[in-house]
């Protein structure tokens, strides 16, 4: 194909000549071959060849000129039509594009494609009688084409309720591939990651939990390691749920000061002892079963870590031990002979399930306040002799050492490092008459399930006796041979098979397996009077009995879901009630909801408290000594103590010999000011007072918890009311007056015995 204008060769699909730019006829169009005017062909033309002669000037022939003129007129028409077509085409394309764009905008905004708009979730209504849950909101969003995921978080809403959207809000647009997180409330708790943040940064978050929040000063010694004002501990622990909405949340705020620094945890035991001794404290090191990373290091203290101290105060530091020391801590010595030592403070502490929903606490208590021995109890039990926890058939000086054959059948006798804990009542048979324990007391029998007392002149037969399954614990320190215990058939086979399908217990932490009596079909059996001395089938063995006993197997078997782990460090290790309040900006509203003030005592009050501080104040609420209280008052105004009440239910006991029930109390004086005659007026903070119950508050002398007066030594006997005079009289101080500071509760009538605590040790 060639250009009609210049004759250059062109392509089939080209519309314009690449050489001269002339429009080209397209394929399928006819090209003009001659002029529109017919030429006469019958007349011979000059030239001899039948064609017209050439033009003498141009040299062109007539037919060439005519052809050129004819062809020149066609491209001009074609060029005009093409421009119109182009304009029309462009206009049509633009119109179509505009229509399409408008449609896209309309459908996009309608959510038919692309990004979606989050609807107003507050308008979502659950079914009648149902609460708005995260799943309901998620389903509503899914129905509108929005992808969702449900995440559990702590909040002030009830557990299971909808707790908001994470990172987005109603009206926001989200992409088609974006997933919206819908929060489901787990109830109030301490969000993971709270520890380590600055206290002021977590105030608003904790306010949303709708529970009281207390901010407490926790002493740290190395402020380069732990920044003052940062959160070092919480109760419940970081990431745990609130167990008691009335108690709420406690936050430990790092405070530079003198005392047992919270940062002592995890340090070398000998170095820690040396450091505290250099500050004037009396330090004792004691072993305690602890997690793997605390072996040989400080795992706790008494007073608790973070507690302020004064020079000369005594401190016990606990360092971690493992299963290799089990027999060592259970072995004592008396008269040059090895004996079985009682379970001691190497076991004390709080133990909780992995989800922190269920806990138990082991603590040391005295049966008789005048005695020298303390015994291990589950603190949920009464401090009754039959409830003390032991690991062999006997206790105190009567028990043979762990390796003695009399302990055969008990884990303490083996080499696994594990051991059992069970009440003394179990070792004596767990025999009951009705609902009363037959503890081997005097001439007592049982007739049809009711206790009867004889005169001792003849033996008594009994009927209606039963043997009951009691509380039972199996303890596994770090390094215990758990596999050996399991392989020996110690645990019920079905229970063990179930445990093996669950997540394994964390053996880097000490844990307890507590018997679950609900897993047994029979937890009680009737026995004949003659079989009272038979071995107890509800404990693994009866040492020294010489009888073969078919004992029940332990249920459950250990798994991460069933065991109770020792809670170390964190909030459980602090004595919150003894700590001064921390002044945290913005925390006023949240702390006020708990009834406490935010800041600690003022400087003037602290000076008075420092003068009054004493490790022992004593108050006897009865004239015969059957009930009295001991209290320690610290220089920050906090106090703690124990009320000792003689159990005179057995006529064989006197006030001096009766076992004592111990009831602990604690609180704080929020302020102090000078009074007349060298006295001080103290204000007791009722919101901080903790007693067993209202009756205990009375016997402890803190009902009401209001205004107290501190009287100096030598105050005239006649200054006091009748009740306080009787206290001084019983102490032989009717002439001299009190020998040291005497703190008296002014809210009790003069004819009653008010709380009258006299300092006997600074």
Structure characterization notes:
The chain has 762 residues and is an alpha+beta fold. The protein contains twelve helices and 35 strands. It starts with 61 loop residues before the first helix and ends with a strand. Mean pLDDT is 81; it is low at 28-50, 55-59, 65-74, 542-548 and 591-600.
In short:
The chain has 762 residues and is an alpha+beta fold. It is 17% helix and 24% strand.
Keywords:
12 helices; 762 residues; eight-stranded antiparallel beta sheet; Trypsin Inhibitor V, Chain A; extended; eight-stranded antiparallel beta barrel; transmembrane helix
> What is the spatial order of strands in the main beta sheet?
16-15-14-27-25-24-18-17
Radius of gyration: 46 Å
Apparent shape: extended
Task: Output the structural class.
Answer: alpha+beta
Biggest sheet features:
8 strands, antiparallel
The beta-strand count equals: 35
Note poorly predicted spans.
28-50, 55-59, 65-74, 542-548, 591-600
Range of helix content = 10-25%
Total helical segments: 12
Strand coverage percent: 15-25%
User: pLDDT average, as an integer?
Assistant: 81
Give the termini separation: 122 Å
Keywords: Kinase, Membrane, Serine/threonine-protein kinase, Transferase, Transmembrane, Transmembrane helix
GO molecular function: protein serine/threonine kinase activity
Pfam family, one: PASTA
Protein name: Serine/threonine protein kinase
Write the layout of secondary structure elements.
Elements: H1 62-109, E1 116-117, H2 134-143, E2 147-153, E3 162-166, E4 173-174, E5 179-185, H3 199-207, E6 213-220, E7 231-235, E8 249-256, H4 269-278, E9 282-289, E10 298-302, E11 314-321, H5 326-329, E12 331-334, E13 337-340, E14 349-352, E15 359-365, E16 375-378, E17 389-390, E18 419-423, H6 424-427, E19 431-433, E20 436-437, E21 444-447, E22 450-453, E23 465-468, E24 473-476, H7 482-487, H8 493-500, E25 511-514, E26 524-527, E27 564-566, H9 588-592, H10 603-612, E28 614-620, E29 627-633, E30 638-646, E31 660-674, E32 680-684, H11 694-699, E33 707-711, H12 722-730, E34 742-745, E35 756-761
Parallel strand pairs: 2-5, 6-8, 9-11
Antiparallel strand pairs: 1-4, 3-5, 7-8, 10-11, 12-13, 14-15, 14-27, 15-16, 17-18, 18-24, 19-20, 19-23, 21-22, 23-26, 24-25, 25-27, 28-29, 28-35, 29-30, 30-31, 31-32, 32-33, 33-34, 34-35
GO molecular function, one term: protein serine/threonine kinase activity
Transmembrane segments: 86-106
Keywords: Kinase, Membrane, Serine/threonine-protein kinase, Transferase, Transmembrane, Transmembrane helix
């Amino acid at each position: 194909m060639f250009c009609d204008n210049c004759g250059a060769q062109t392509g089939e699909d080209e519309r314009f000549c690449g050489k001269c730019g002339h429009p080209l006829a397209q394929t399928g169009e006819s090209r003009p071959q001659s002029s529109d005017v017919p030429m006469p062909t019958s007349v011979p033309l000059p030239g001899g060849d039948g064609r017209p002669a050439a033009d003498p000037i141009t040299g062109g022939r007539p037919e060439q000129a005519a052809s050129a003129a004819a062809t020149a007129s066609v491209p001009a028409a074609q060029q005009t039509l093409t421009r119109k077509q182009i304009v029309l085409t462009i206009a049509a394309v633009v119109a179509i594009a505009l229509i399409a764009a408008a449609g896209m905008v309309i459908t996009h905004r309608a959510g038919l494609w692309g990004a979606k708009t989050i609807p107003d979730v507050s308008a979502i209504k659950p079914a009648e009688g149902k609460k708005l849950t995260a799943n309901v909101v998620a389903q509503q969003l899914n129905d509108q084409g929005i992808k969702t995921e449900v995440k559990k978080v702590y909040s002030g809403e009830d557990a299971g309720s909808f707790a908001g959207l994470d990172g987005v809000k109603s009206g926001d647009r989200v992409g088609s591939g974006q997933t919206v997180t819908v929060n489901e409330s787990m109830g109030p708790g301490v969000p993971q990651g709270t520890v380590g943040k600055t206290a002021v940064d977590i105030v608003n978050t904790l306010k949303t939990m709708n529970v009281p929040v207390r901010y407490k000063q926790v002493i740290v010694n190395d402020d380069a390691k732990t920044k003052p004002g940062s959160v070092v501990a919480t109760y419940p622990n970081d990431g745990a749920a609130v167990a008691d909405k009335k108690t709420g949340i406690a936050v430990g705020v790092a405070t530079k000061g003198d005392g047992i620094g919270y940062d002592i945890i995890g340090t070398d035991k000998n170095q820690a002892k040396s450091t505290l001794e250099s500050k004037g404290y009396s330090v004792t090191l004691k072993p305690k079963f602890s997690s793997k990373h605390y072996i040989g290091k400080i795992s706790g203290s008494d007073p608790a870590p973070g507690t302020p101290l004064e020079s000369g105060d005594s401190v016990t530091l606990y360092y971690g031990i493992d299963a290799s020391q089990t027999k060592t801590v259970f072995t004592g010595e008396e008269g040059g002979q090895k004996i079985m030592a009682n379970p001691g403070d190497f076991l004390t502490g709080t133990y909780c399930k992995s989800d922190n929903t269920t806990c138990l606490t082991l603590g040391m208590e005295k049966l008789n306040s005048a005695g020298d021995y303390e015994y291990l109890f589950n603190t949920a039990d009464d401090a009754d002799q039959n409830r003390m926890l032991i690991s062999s058939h006997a206790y105190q000086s009567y028990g043979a050492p762990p390796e003695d054959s009399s302990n055969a059948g008990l884990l303490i006798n083996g080499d696994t490092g594990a051991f059992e804990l069970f009440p003394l009542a179990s070792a004596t048979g767990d025999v009951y008459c009705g609902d009363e324990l037959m503890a081997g007391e005097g001439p007592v029998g049982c007739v049809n399930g009711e206790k009867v007392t004889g005169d001792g002149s003849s033996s008594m037969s009994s009927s209606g006796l039963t043997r009951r399954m009691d509380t039972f614990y199996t303890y596994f320190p770090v390094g215990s041979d758990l596999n050996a215990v399991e392989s020996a058939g110690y645990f019920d086979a079905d229970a063990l098979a179930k445990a093996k399908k669950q997540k394994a217990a964390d053996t880097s932490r000490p844990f307890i397996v507590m018997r679950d009596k609900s897993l047994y079909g029979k937890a009680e059996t009737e026995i004949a009077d003659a079989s009272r001395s038979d071995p107890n089938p509800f404990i693994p063995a009866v040492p020294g009995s010489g009888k073969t006993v078919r004992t029940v197997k332990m249920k459950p078997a250990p798994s991460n879901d069933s065991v109770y782990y020792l809670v170390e460090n964190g909030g459980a290790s602090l004595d919150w009630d003894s700590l001064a309040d921390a002044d945290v900006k913005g925390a006023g509203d949240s702390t006020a909801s708990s009834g406490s003030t935010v800041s600690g005592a003022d400087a003037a009050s602290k000076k008075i408290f420092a003068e009054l501080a004493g490790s022992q104040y004593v108050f006897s609420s009865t004239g015969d000594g059957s009930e009295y209280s001991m209290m320690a008052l610290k220089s920050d105004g906090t106090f703690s103590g124990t009320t000792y009440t003689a159990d005179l239910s057995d006529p064989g006991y006197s006030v001096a010999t009766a076992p004592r029930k111990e009831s602990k109390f604690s609180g704080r004086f929020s302020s102090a000011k000078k009074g007349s005659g060298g006295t001080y007026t103290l204000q007791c903070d009722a919101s901080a007072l903790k007693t067993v119950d209202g009756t205990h508050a009375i016997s402890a002398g803190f009902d009401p918890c209001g205004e107290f007066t501190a009287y100096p030594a030598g105050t005239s006997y006649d200054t006091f009311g009748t009740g306080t005079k009787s206290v001084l009289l019983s102490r032989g101080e009717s002439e001299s007056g009190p020998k040291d500071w005497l703190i008296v509760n002014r809210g009790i009538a003069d004819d009653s015995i008010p709380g009258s605590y006299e300092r006997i040790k600074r």
